Structure formats: C-alpha cells, structure tokens
Amino acid sequence: MKIARHDNVSGRSGTQSNFRQTISMAECEWMPPKLTNEMIDAAIEGFEAHKRRIDDQISELRAMRSASPAPSASASTKQPRRKMSAAGRKAIAAAQRKRWAASKVEVQTKSPRAKPAKKKRILSAEGKANIIAALQKRWAAKKAAAKK
Questions:
Q1: With 80 as the cut, is the pLDDT of residue 134 above it?
Q2: What is the pLDDT of residue 65?
Q3: At 69, is the secondary structure helix, strand, or coil?
Q4: CA distances from residue 15 to 10, 18, 19, 86 in whole angstroms, order as listed
Q5: What is the pLDDT of residues 87-116, one digit of tens each?
Q6: What is the DSSP string of 73-129?
Q7: CA dihedral defined by 126, 128, 129, 134, rounded to 10 degrees?
Q8: Residue 11 and residue 8: Cα distance in Å, rounded?
Q9: Is the model more confident about 2 or about 63?
Q10: Deepest in the core among 2, 44, 62, 120, taking most CB within 10 A?
C-alpha cells in the first residue's frame, strides 16, 4: 500500500512549490512491524519464565516471614467452587423479598400522598382575541416596514 504526501517546500527563489512524495507502508517509521507467530511464542515463553522467577521469590519471602514451609508456586491454590442447595437459594430469595417489602412500606409511609395533577388551563375567548389582535398588529407593522 502506498500513501501520497503533499509538502510545501520553499525553493531557492523563495517561492513555495508543491511536490508529491510517495511512501510505501514498509518504509514508514510510524507503522509497527508485523508480528509473526514465532515472535509471539518467544515473548510468551519469556514472560512465563519471568513469572516463574517472581513466583519463586514470593514463595521464598513467605517462607522467611513464617516458619512453616510455603506451598510451591506451581501447586494450584484455587479451591473448587462451592455449590448452594436449592433450599439455601429459596431461603435467600425469601429473605430478599422480605427486605424489599419492608423498604417499600417504609418509602410509602415517609412520602406524602401524591398531589392531584393540576387541571389543564383553558384559554378564554377574550384572551384568544387579544392574541389574534396582537399578531395582526405585528404582521401589519412588519409589512409596512418591508414596503419602506
């Protein structure tokens, strides 16, 4: 892929001239190099080795802090996930429903009763006539100003 770039360059006579320069994507400094699978695999191996060294150092420090030997870094410290029985889930759901009911009652007792909505205001015939007269007066003034 090629990119065209326009530059303004001052010539010897002091005038500016435009010229077109074509740059290929492989030559661009701002384009990152293509990562190959080998490069990615090497990076992963390096990071894993670094992680193993850090884990070993952490286990040594833990052993220094406590007199008991530290578990090895390679051993899995994650315990299997505990499962909840259906009865336990029902008990938790019932307790949550009870809390919600109590909070709804509390909100209803604290808030004052809702005020009834205001009635819609109706424009009287006299008010409508005043608005129409004002509009006619405004338009007449505008037309008179346009004629001048």
A1: yes
A2: 85
A3: coil
A4: 6, 10, 13, 85
A5: 999 999 999 999 999 988 887 777 666 677
A6: TTS--PPPPP---HHHHHHHHHHHHHHHHHHHHHHHHHSPPPPPPPPPP---HHHHH
A7: 130
A8: 9
A9: 63
A10: 62
User: Which pLDDT does position 80 carry in this prediction?
Assistant: 83
The answer to whether 6 and 20 have CB atoms below 8 angstroms apart is yes
Nearby residues of 74 by Cβ (< 8 Å), 6 or more positions away: 55
Side chain identity at 137, as an amino acid letter?
Answer: K
Which residues, at least 6 apart from 125, have a Cβ–Cβ distance to it below 8 Å? none
Q: pTM here? A: 0.26
Cβ atoms within 10 Å of 42's Cβ, excluding its own: 11
Using the predicted structure, report yes or no on whether residue 8 has a pLDDT greater than 60.
no
- Token digits of residue 95: 């307790």
Place of tokens 């007066």: 137
CB 16 within 8 A of CB 10: yes
- Structure-token pair, residue 138: 């405004």
